[in-house]
From TrEMBL:
SUPFAM superfamilies: P-loop containing nucleoside triphosphate hydrolases. Residues 7-234 form the ABC transporter domain. GO terms for molecular function: ATP binding; ATP hydrolysis activity; transmembrane transporter activity. Signal peptide: none annotated. Belongs to the ABC transporter superfamily. It comes from Anaerotalea alkaliphila. This is ABC transporter ATP-binding protein. InterPro entries: AAA+_ATPase, ABC_transporter-like_ATP-bd, ABC_transporter-like_CS, MacB-like_ATP-bd, P-loop_NTPase. One of its GO terms (cellular component) is membrane protein complex.
Amino acid sequence: MENKVLYKVEGLSKSYQMGDVEVKALQEVSFEIGEGEFVVILGPSGSGKSTLLNIMGGMDKPSAGKVFFKEQEVTRYDDRKLTQFRRRDVGFIFQFYNLIGNLTARENVELAVEICDEPLDVEEMLEAVGLEERSDHFPAQMSGGEQQRVAIARAAAKNPEILLCDEPTGALDFETGISILQVLKMVNERYGRTVVVITHNAPIAQMADRVLKMRSGKVMEDYRNSQPLDPKEIVW
Ligand SMILES: Nc1ncnc2c1ncn2[C@@H]1O[C@H](COP(=O)(O)OP(=O)(O)OP(=O)(O)O)[C@@H](O)[C@H]1O
């Protein structure tokens, strides 16, 4: 089975100048991601995962190299096209949820879909992530796992091609983390969305179709799991 290529990353490098020192966050990273894949980008702290995800999501620009999304070169987009790309094509999920505190779960999701073209049904998404009973609660009235479910509903309801998730289980205990991985897998399977999860937590790689292992700003391994595990079989 060969999926259509969704992302093509070519020779991507990113350096930061810190006084006299040049920090090489990414060094000539190249790979492709197929439509519908569940990808885990695994690497220790400082290996360049967030830098890579931010460039893939149009939030940051590389020092060199190219990113293509559906054969369009994102790295050549002007600000207007980048805004459109972030709104329409990409859903973001962060470690600390980033919900708006004075809006309920439902209102957080509704606000996000207001700025995109073909959103999914808000109630359906809240139900899909298991929050139908809690949709009128404010973030402060919800557990970390519930808040992360709202964040997933918010990102997925935009109906983006891809969900980019930066350590989505990083702030959660083991069992809640597993339940969040199950929700991400559900969005991948039921809605056919491509999902990229970055993590330093090696066991999570067992649920991926594809694994990219990073170290010191480079992709050291790029492999496919022949039998990805169901999240509930993962232990850490
Ligand atoms: N804005 C910045 N200015 C200077 N250096 C930066 C900046 N952002 C990242 N770096 C450096 O780039 C390298 C890669 O950082 P990055 O956050 O991408 O790694 P990471 O794998 O996501 O790490 P973590 O899991 O700890 O978030 C690190 O050495 C980091 O200190």
